[in-house]
Design a protein that fits this description.
about 90 residues; about 80% helix; mainly alpha
């Protein structure tokens, strides 16, 4: 109930201030939603964009190493020698 009350209070403030223009109203609503999203992300202690970029680069490097190791293992398996029959 308090969350819906918060939203209603924000809309009431907007109307009181005379923001009747659709673009101003939509921009204000987007700003309110973005600030709430930022609060939620901060509370959840999620990583920042920089940290996720660094983690993605690390994953790419590890995937490349795995691919090279798999290729080298395939090459080693192909080089088996045949034994001569007596």
């Amino acid at each position: 109930m308090s969350k819906s009350r918060f939203v209603i209070d924000k809309f009431a403030k907007l109307l009181e201030q005379g923001l009747l223009n659709y673009k101003d109203l939509s921009n204000e609503i987007l700003n309110i939603l973005k600030s709430k999203r930022d609060e939620i992300v901060f509370k959840m202690k999620l990583t920042s964009k920089e940290e996720t970029d660094i983690l993605n680069k690390r994953l790419e490097n590890l995937e490349k190493k795995i691919e090279t190791l798999e290729k080298s293992n395939k090459k080693k398996k192909k080089k088996t020698k045949r034994v001569k029959r007596s």
